[in-house]
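input
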Amino acid sequence: MNGNKSMKTTYCPLCGKEHQPRKVERDAATTIKDVAVTYRETVFVCEHSDEETNEYETASLTNRNLLAARDAYRERMHLLTSSEIAALRKKYGLTQAELAKVLGWGEVTVTRYETKAIQDEAHDGLLRIIRDNPMELNRFLDRNKKALGEIRFGELKNRIAQVMEEQGNAALRRQAVQSAYLPFHEPSYANGNTSFDERKFTASVNYLASHVEYLYKTRLMKMLWYADSLAYRDHGKAITGAVYRHMPMGALPVAYNELLALDGIEVKEEEQEDGSTRYLISPGNERTWEILNKDERAALDEVISKFKYFSAQNIVEHMHRERAYLETSPGEIISFEYAHHLNWD
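output
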């Protein structure tokens, strides 16, 4: 996909002038350690150059492209990507140098893994262990306490304890969702011929939140229903596998509160003057989108295009005119067969 994002004029090394180059994103291929990989690269294009080659990269773009290629290799080889390493470090509130010290590595090792170098399997395995098990990181922290100092040691011990509590709560939320969706495990009209997929649900929420400004819970839930319904109508399968009920404000997925509390979904509570609370969904990590295929993104894009500027009340009123709402009773599961009768024109 080509991008034309607005940017400041800059010196162009091809034509020697100050102007606004065109920024292009595209698929590229390379070989790393005898493994062929494809990745997304970004280049600048000079529209004024008479040279045969009118593309160029800045130093920062070159580094970015190299990192994208190396991350593609890591994904092929089932290694943590640079952003996943950064995420696990930030989860514990560690700097790059601190994480290296805690694990007994060279001080710049983590910095290199997050910017250019590819970790070996042994280091990758250790990073995965501490990502998933805070107690293991706690053990390393105790072992290398002197490398951090008394005050910082205490701060990190507290943060690890906090992460352990958060992970325990997250596990309970996941169990609640799994329990709620157990009766709908088999593909059916209730779930859009798709068993519930937590990763695709999270990805869909983050995708919508990243493309719709001020996305609150009511509007989000309706947009998810429409996206799942469009995907089912056009391809025979919903995106998320969520099961929706007829509720006063329109379609709501089963266990919607627990769904919004899942890891990877950012929700901010906003107290209103009348004492009520609104829930603002913030954009999450773009990497979660990668699990969505092009047809699923197309359904989400179509929903965004139609409802991006609708208020919550507008989209609720639109939902209330759907056959899916008019022909079902309060609390009833909404069959995805109604997707063939969407009010979409």
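quick obs: The chain has 13 helices and ten strands.
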